[in-house]
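ok new one. same drill as before - structure tokens go in, u give me an amino acid for every spot. 559 of them this time. try not to just spam alanines like last time pls lmao
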């Protein structure tokens, strides 16, 4: 007896082109997801994961316009054109930036918002609020305004709001991006339970993480096309090298891509030749094994590998010593008994008696669970928040007594969500904005040649030179993180602060971020990097500090 296989999600020959683009971001995507399946979409930064999620959840073309071709069905509807109420009863979807999902006041209002719009009875809404605040550890902040939450708290609230709709299908784009390790485990358990109870799940991720082994099937995306699909075991066993080549898995050599660049730039051509042979050899093998790919995609891979290789050989100026940084005992920033409370909120202060020093050439990783005070500390250090007097000293000056202009003047700050930091309309203008400001140039003044070349080198290094005329908002998440970092590192500063720079990024992005950080440290800068994944910075010689409920716990070892 044969059972007919009826997919719940069905895409056939789907291509999508953004309104301002000349070429498609997604090309000929054909995909089926059965009811109760868990499909994971994995692809490097900018490969099109978010775009695919947004085509499936109907935001594209409904909200952002653009041109979609091919057929998309979720059950019996086309999400791109269905009535919103009908869509909400079928699926819930969460993007990478929780701020874009949150609409109302308190946490519990946020959870009630969707069901209220679907006219769910009040008693049932109350039950769902109780259930999801408990499941997602939101009870203590249930009555707080969503605008006063930390990044991870906002992400959990956004997820609770989606789950309270009791959707049949859940589409989650990097759902754990801002969560601390315990929060990640909790989230994993929740979505696994939800899936086990019959829900259809689609998740997207830039890296091959532990969650992958839990899903039923994986689709690998590269340059807007599906290049591989299979079970997690099959892909790991037969296609490991391709996954490395696409920056989804870390390179097995133990040597970072950027340090290969350094060796290549320093004349160790054998290294990059080996690397190229490896890729060429690999591409040949992968060609035979790939279940679905196209010659066009293959050419893209070979082409971009070659571009990277050429860049390494050309840009000597990017070279830094391959070994760690030289740390001096000269302090760049001193924090003395810093206590800080947001006005009118919280039972305990966001920061409580924090004390530490960062020295010249030092990289410090700042870790801690969601809501422990990391972002608050970075805002105070960067001058965005007014520090209390006698708590933060730069060059012996009490920054609590300085104007915002003076205290923020010589810090490079990379925001947790780069979209909050853009000031220009193109990638190029964003990149040179700080240089122009430091030279007192207006936007129509010509940039001196040396500065122009350095900015171009940096954009090329980040793989963004071809995007110079595009809006920063139109970049993929990892590309945005790199641009935000590049903009800051172009200006020599004594102190750089990066808030979760590697979250939801592929190994290409992480590698370049790491390289830029180490280069800055080797030139004498001090760096503070907020992260939930200190392991990504292994080998950087960084010191680790951990915050617990606003109190600092110093780890004595370096990684
Ligand atoms: N609004 C837009 N207009 C034009 N191009 C866009 C827009 N949004 C995204 N793109 C481009 O589409 C490509 C795919 O982006 P997308 O955000 O889907 O990638 P991604 O795989 O989710 O990346 P990441 O994991 O880094 O977020 C990128 O090159 C990006 O620059
Ligand atoms: N604007 C604000 N107004 C009031 N309280 C705030 C505000 N921003 C943050 N808080 C509170 O301060 C505490 C520390 O938040 P912070 O954002 O510094 O944490 P975090 O360690 O960066 O968290 P995450 O890892 O989730 O980003 C949290 O309890 C949070 O609710």
């Amino acid at each position: 007896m044969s059972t007919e296989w009826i997919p719940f999600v069905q895409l056939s020959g789907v291509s999508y082109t953004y309104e301002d683009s000349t070429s498609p971001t997604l090309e000929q995507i054909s995909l089926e997801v059965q009811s109760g399946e868990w499909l994971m979409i994995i692809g490097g930064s900018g490969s099109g994961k978010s775009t695919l999620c947004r085509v499936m959840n109907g935001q594209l073309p409904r909200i952002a316009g653009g041109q979609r071709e091919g057929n998309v069905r979720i059950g019996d509807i086309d999400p791109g054109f269905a009535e919103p109420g009908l869509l909400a009863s079928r699926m819930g979807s969460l993007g990478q930036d929780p701020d874009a999902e949150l609409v109302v006041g308190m946490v519990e209002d946020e959870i009630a918002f969707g069901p209220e719009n679907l006219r769910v009875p009040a008693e049932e809404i109350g039950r769902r609020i109780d259930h999801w605040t408990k499941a997602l550890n939101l009870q203590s902040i249930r009555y707080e305004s969503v605008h006063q939450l930390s990044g991870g708290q906002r992400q959990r609230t956004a997820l609770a709001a989606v789950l309270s709709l009791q959707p049949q299908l859940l589409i989650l784009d990097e759902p754990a991006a801002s969560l601390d390790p315990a929060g990640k485990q909790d989230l994993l358990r929740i979505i696994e339970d939800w899936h086990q109870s019959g829900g259809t799940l689609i998740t997207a991720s830039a890296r091959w993480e532990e969650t992958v082994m839990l899903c039923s099937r994986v689709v690998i995306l590269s340059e807007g096309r599906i290049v591989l699909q299979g079970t997690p075991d099959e892909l790991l066993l037969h296609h490991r090298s391709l996954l490395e080549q696409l920056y989804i898995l870390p390179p097995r050599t133990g040597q970072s891509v950027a340090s290969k660049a350094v060796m290549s730039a320093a004349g160790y051509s054998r290294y990059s030749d080996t690397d190229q042979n490896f890729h060429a050899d690999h591409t040949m093998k992968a060609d035979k094994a790939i279940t679905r790919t196209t010659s066009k995609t293959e050419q893209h891979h070979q082409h971009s590998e070659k571009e990277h290789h050429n860049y390494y050989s050309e840009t000597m100026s990017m070279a830094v010593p391959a070994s760690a940084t030289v740390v001096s005992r000269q302090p760049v920033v001193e924090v003395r008994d810093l206590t800080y409370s947001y006005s009118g909120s919280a039972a305990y202060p966001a920061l409580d008696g924090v004390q530490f020093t960062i020295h010249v050439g030092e990289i410090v990783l700042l870790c801690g669970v969601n809501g422990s005070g990391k972002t608050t500390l970075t805002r105070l250090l960067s001058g965005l928040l007014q520090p209390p007097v006698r708590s933060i000293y730069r060059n012996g000056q009490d920054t609590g007594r300085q104007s915002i202009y003076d205290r923020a003047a010589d810090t490079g700050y990379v925001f947790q969500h780069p979209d909050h930091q853009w000031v220009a309309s193109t990638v190029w203008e964003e990149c040179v904005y700080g240089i122009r400001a430091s030279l007192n140039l207006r936007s129509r003044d010509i940039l001196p040649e040396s500065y122009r070349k350095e900015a171009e080198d940096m954009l090329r290094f980040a793989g963004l030179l071809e995007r110079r005329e595009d809006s920063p908002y139109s970049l993929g998440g990892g590309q945005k993180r790199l641009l935000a970092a590049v903009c800051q590192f172009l200006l020599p500063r004594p102190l750089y602060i990066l808030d979760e720079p590697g979250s939801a990024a592929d190994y290409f992005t992480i590698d370049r971020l790491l390289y830029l950080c180490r280069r800055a440290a080797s030139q004498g800068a001090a760096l503070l990097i907020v992260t939930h994944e200190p392991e990504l910075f292994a080998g950087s010689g960084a010191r680790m500090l951990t915050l617990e409920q606003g109190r600092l716990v110093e780890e004595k070892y370096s990684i």
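Residues 245-318 form one domain. and btw The first helix runs from residue 49 to 56.
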